[in-house]
Write a structure and sequence with these properties.
Blueprint lengths: L2 H19 L5 H13 L4 E4 L2 E3 L1 H15 L6 H8 L11 E3 L5 E3 H28 L1
Antiparallel strand pairs: 1-2, 1-3, 3-4
Length: 133
């Protein structure tokens, strides 16, 4: 076997091993991240015109998650079904951050998920590069 083929095979094996060491995030991990993001946010959550603490928001989102669990296959499903709007009134859930800005909760969580994935992907890429070096 030529040396270039052996080097390629070795690099491929190392990359595959690196991917196993940093596997893709599971649905449970993503949901745990989002719930933690809410609970540590120091924000005010607005549901049907009433203000709620992060702990109250997490409890409500978890209850809706349990209700919709069979339908939730992705973190986006979780956000859409558990953290977007009231089932009773159809009003969107809002979040008011420390700077006073109000945003739809589903948009806020989607942005947090996107940032988390970018950071998670960056860590996997860094690990893969270090294996090759």
């Amino acid at each position: 076997m030529p040396a270039s083929v052996r080097i390629f095979a070795l690099a491929f094996t190392l990359l595959a091993s690196a991917q196993l060491a940093f596997p893709g995030e599971s649905l449970d991990d993503a949901i745990a991240y989002l719930l933690n993001y809410v609970s540590t946010s120091h924000a005010t959550f607005l549901r049907n015109g009433t203000s709620h603490t992060p702990a109250e928001a997490v409890a409500h989102i978890k209850a809706k998650y349990e209700h919709f669990k069979p339908q939730i296959k992705t973190p986006e499903d979780f956000i859409r079904l558990s953290a977007s709007k009231s089932l009773l009134t159809g009003q969107p859930y809002l979040v008011r951050t420390r700077d006073g800005k109000e945003t739809h909760l589903d948009e806020w969580l989607t942005a947090a998920l996107k940032q988390h994935r970018a950071e998670h992907h960056s860590l996997r890429c860094d690990a893969s590069r270090s294996v090759l070096l």
